[in-house]
Design brief:
194 residues; 7 strands; 21% strand; binds flavin mononucleotide
């Protein structure tokens, strides 16, 4: 059984169009072959790194205390076979909530390690998938910073592939249903192909 980790950052919950893509993706997965773990960073006791939390993290890492609960998120991320980030396009990238999650999973010795040749990813994940929706049209432009960053992050952590499925232009006055439905189909097709 492979495990898929869905990191749900759809802050607008029931109103979220991005959440529709996530639901379409999960519904099309073969649940005989995949189990799905969902994590909602806004429901977790997950804090951004501050002077205090960073010092505590450094102390635990210096002690080699990688099994502490604080590092559960990093271990879960490192062990996932595929990871899906469901996050809307906010302020040219994604909600800070997802960055807080990234700060919590980026742990030396769990998701990456230092070698004489440089840093090396330790995650066993194959695909890092971003499901997103955007108010305007930004795909393929310099102003679209979510995919650039998350693709680099996936490479850093050792993922083989980064895939983005998104719907655009939803707040431009067009009927958003068409692009959302089309992106839902692509999300389903991806899940069915896994
Ligand atoms: C706080 C905030 C910031 C946003 N920033 C952008 C942006 O920079 N560019 C853009 O095209 N749309 C932006 N949007 C619009 C969202 O990308 C768009 O409405 C998206 O579909 C929201 O996803 P959701 O329905 O899953 O919440 C923003 C929306 C919010 C609430």
């Amino acid at each position: 059984m492979k495990n898929v980790l869905l990191v749900d950052c759809c802050i607008r919950r029931e109103q979220s169009r991005t959440a529709r893509l996530a639901r379409a993706f999960i519904a099309a997965l073969d649940l005989e072959r995949f189990c799905v773990n969902v994590i909602r960073p806004d429901q977790e006791r997950m804090r951004p790194l501050t002077g205090e939390t960073l010092a505590e993290r450094d102390r635990l890492l210096a002690e080699g205390a990688l099994s502490r609960p604080r590092f559960d998120y990093a271990r879960q991320f490192a062990a996932a076979d595929d990871v899906v980030f469901a996050a809307p396009f906010w302020d040219l990238s994604f909600p800070a909530l997802l960055k807080v999650y990234v700060e919590n999973i980026s742990v030396e010795g769990i998701t990456f390690r230092t070698t004489p040749a440089g840093l090396e990813g330790l995650c066993q994940g194959k695909r890092l998938i971003l499901l997103t929706t955007r108010g305007g049209y930004y795909g393929g432009t310099r102003l679209e910073q979510a995919t650039t960053y998350l693709a680099a992050l996936g490479e850093f952590f050792g993922f083989e592939q980064f895939i983005c499925i998104g719907a655009e232009g939803l707040d431009t006055g067009i009927d958003p249903e068409g692009p959302i439905a089309e992106a839902e189909e692509r999300a389903k097709a991806l899940a069915a192909s896994m």
